[in-house]
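ok new one. same drill as before - structure tokens go in, u give me an amino acid for every spot. 729 of them this time. try not to just spam alanines like last time pls lmao
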């Protein structure tokens, strides 16, 4: 990493003194004001509310001029002149839009992901944004959930690595104009465990699963320096996360000793009424504040009730003071009192530079996952004469921007058509036919033109179909129950495949799709996700072979919706699918489906390259290790193909017997290496034994002595296997 991250956590007596001096001058109303975050639609008298010190933060503003204007109201026209802290959803880029987070995670390159986050922070801070509502660190194991697009996928270890990387990048210490940005990991907690993959839905998981699976990425984000957190919309076992003392006090403050600011998600306090957890906004303010929320996003509860609740002795003013201290400390640490305004001229110098566009291209190239490549159909090479480029996303300048595109503009996006034109030799012919719309919004097949698509395919050497989802089909509130191709795209695909021409499918989507027919009938499939402004060029580079694909899946692809949730780190059960099973009545009874396989279509960690890799000679340095020791395991990895390639070598562990049952595999390490043809290298993992623990029956984190299995391999379903034993001493 060529930059360092700003440290918001170091104690500063100077800041503490300034906070206390300010706090001692504040009225109760002004204190409550610091705990209110509003947007432009909050109230008609927003300006006056700011002048009166009744608003501490704004979200989702538009540009430096507007932000400066509001800052001026707070700094120059309010009694105490406390600057606002300005929040925004900068999820995968700002003006330079990068691939969606699930795609970024598929690079398996935390360093690159950090650099991209730093670029996003650079571009956002010059508009006066101080607070980035990211990273989303929710573990997601259900592709029906549209917000799977916004996170790092199903795995805890990789999720922690990406959480750290994003926080470090967003909070980079060298942002332009001397500005600073604070990250806000979200949505605390277990938002991704929504029942049936339906957004905002109920979560009912055990405390052990919460601690072992859903909380670690938050802890990783805080350890990396995240100084705020966003509490989630969902309930967990009957208690909404935004009024949940166990999450917000017991875990955050008492167990982790974390002292940052807790911001509730968008009107999550108002939603306590819908949850049936508060009868009115007064009770919502009472329950959420006393549970540990510091700031009310959208300000529908705190501004109207908190001061009265203090007067009624239902909320302690000392607790209000603590919350205000946290907010003020953050504002001082951000440097807002010294530098509340931003220079509007900076944006043009900092945003969408060649360097940023170059990085967006690199991330896009590395995020794409080659799912199938029968007969080495790819790369196409540059000597093809005619390519039929078919599909509703082939020349799309909007949807590659993905579900959170901040200031991204369609005009900045390179479509696949643009990308291919840029890299193909002049004499090559591109026959472009959309074929149908992404979604059928007409109720019929209006606009679909399969004949033109079929004619183009017949006239070409190869048909490249660019298919998938619109950006609005994933992300917040965009859950889907059917995960096939939307609209008429499946029919279009079948019509083109029926021509008998070689077919390549490029998939753009915000989630894993369910595509059994495609996997069976199409020889080459590239998962391109929503790849940001350079998606089209990255796809062209991969299709033609200038770049070899190196992305690896961070989430299992199901064969059918009925398998969901499907993830590699599941439990064994008493009758595992691969066991002999128990003969009961007259048949073997195993944990399987009668009408579907138990394995995913593509496993976690999976992805092809344009070369092949072979794994051999697993070695374990010492087959017995102590609780404070390190397991050292290595294997030879060789490039057995005829071009260079990047392999992501993965190390998984299984604790065979536990005080409570343990997953059948857990990722504990990964390394990327570039190997020339014929080159081989020994890849070595050092796994601290203390990282092999879990929360036991008493919900204590323990590492238990006993037998372990270890694998080194290319994905969660394959690999060389060994054993080691953890001893007490
Ligand atoms: C989302 C958050 C987002 C917030 C502010 C909410 O609806 O859940 O992820 O940060 O809005 O836009």
């Amino acid at each position: 990493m060529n930059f360092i991250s700003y440290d918001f956590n170091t104690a500063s007596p100077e800041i503490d003194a300034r906070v206390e001096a300010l706090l001692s001058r504040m009225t109760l109303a002004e204190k409550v004001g610091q705990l209110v975050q509003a947007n432009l639609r909050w109230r008609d008298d927003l300006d006056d509310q700011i002048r009166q010190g009744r608003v501490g933060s704004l979200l989702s503003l538009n540009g430096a001029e507007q932000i400066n204007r509001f800052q001026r109201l707070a700094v120059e026209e309010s009694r105490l002149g406390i600057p606002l802290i300005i929040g925004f959803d900068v999820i995968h880029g700002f003006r330079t839009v990068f691939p969606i987070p699930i795609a970024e995670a598929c690079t398996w390159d935390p360093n690159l992901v950090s650099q991209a986050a730093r670029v996003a922070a650079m571009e956002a801070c010059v508009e006066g944004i101080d607070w980035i509502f990211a990273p989303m660190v929710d573990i997601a194991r259900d592709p029906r959930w549209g917000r799977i697009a916004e996170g790092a996928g199903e795995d805890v270890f990789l999720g922690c690595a990406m959480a750290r990387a994003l926080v470090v990048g967003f909070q980079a210490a060298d942002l332009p104009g001397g500005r600073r940005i604070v990250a806000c990991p979200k949505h605390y907690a277990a938002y991704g465990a929504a029942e049936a993959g339906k957004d905002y839905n109920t979560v009912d998981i055990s405390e052990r699963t919460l601690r072992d699976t859903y909380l670690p990425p938050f802890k990783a984000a805080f350890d990396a320096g995240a100084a705020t957190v966003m509490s989630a919309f969902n309930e967990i076992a009957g208690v909404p996360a935004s009024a949940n003392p166990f999450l917000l006090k017991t875990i955050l403050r008492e167990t982790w000793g974390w002292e940052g600011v807790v911001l509730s998600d968008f009107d999550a306090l108002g939603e306590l009424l819908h949850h049936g957890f508060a009868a009115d906004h007064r009770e919502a303010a009472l329950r959420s504040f006393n549970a540990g929320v510091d700031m009310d996003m959208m300000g529908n509860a705190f501004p109207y009730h908190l001061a009265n609740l203090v007067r009624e002795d239902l909320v302690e003013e000392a607790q209000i003071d603590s919350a205000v201290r946290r907010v003020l400390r953050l504002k001082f640490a951000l440097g807002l009192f010294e530098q509340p305004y931003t220079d509007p001229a900076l944006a043009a110098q900092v945003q969408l530079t060649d360097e940023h566009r170059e990085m967006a291209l690199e991330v896009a190239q590395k995020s794409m996952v080659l799912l199938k490549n029968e007969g080495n159909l790819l790369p196409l090479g540059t000597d093809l004469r005619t390519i039929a480029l078919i599909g509703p996303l082939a020349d799309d300048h909007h949807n590659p921007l993905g579900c959170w595109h901040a200031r991204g503009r369609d005009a900045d996006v390179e479509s696949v058509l643009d990308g291919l034109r840029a890299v193909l030799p002049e004499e090559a012919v591109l026959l472009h036919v959309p074929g149908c719309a992404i979604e059928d919004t007409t109720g019929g097949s209006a606009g679909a033109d399969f004949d033109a698509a079929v004619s183009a395919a017949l006239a070409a050497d190869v048909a490249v179909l660019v298919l998938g989802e619109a950006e609005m089909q994933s992300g917040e509130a965009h859950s889907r129950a059917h995960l096939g191709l939307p609209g008429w795209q499946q029919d279009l695909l079948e019509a083109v495949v029926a021509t008998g021409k070689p077919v390549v499918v490029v998939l753009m989507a915000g989630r894993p799709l369910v595509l059994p027919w495609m996997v069976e009938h199409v020889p080459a499939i590239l998962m391109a996700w929503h790849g940001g402004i350079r998606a089209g060029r990255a796809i062209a580079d991969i299709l033609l072979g200038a770049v070899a694909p190196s992305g690896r899946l961070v989430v299992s692809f199901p064969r059918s919706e009925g398998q969901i949730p499907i993830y590699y780190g599941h439990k064994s059960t008493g009758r595992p699918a691969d066991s002999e099973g128990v003969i009961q009545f007259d048949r073997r009874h195993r944990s399987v489906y009668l009408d579907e396989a138990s394995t995913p279509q593509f496993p976690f960690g999976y992805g092809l390259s344009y070369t092949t890799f072979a794994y051999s000679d697993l070695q374990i340095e010492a087959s017995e290790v102590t609780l404070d020791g390190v397991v050292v395991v290595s294997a030879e990895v060789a490039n057995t193909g005829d071009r260079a390639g990047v392999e992501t070598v993965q190390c998984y562990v299984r604790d065979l017997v536990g005080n409570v049952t343990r997953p059948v595999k857990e990722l504990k390490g990964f390394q990327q290496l570039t190997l020339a043809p014929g080159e081989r290298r020994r890849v070595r993992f050092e796994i601290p034994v203390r990282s092999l623990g879990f929360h036991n029956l008493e919900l204590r984190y323990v590492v238990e002595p006993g037998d372990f299995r270890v694998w080194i391999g290319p994905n969660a379903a394959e690999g060389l296997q060994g054993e080691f034993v953890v001893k007490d001493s």
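The chain is about 30% helix and 20% strand. and btw The pocket of beta-D-glucopyranose is lined by residues 59, 89, 133, 186, 265-266, 476 (CB under 6 Å).
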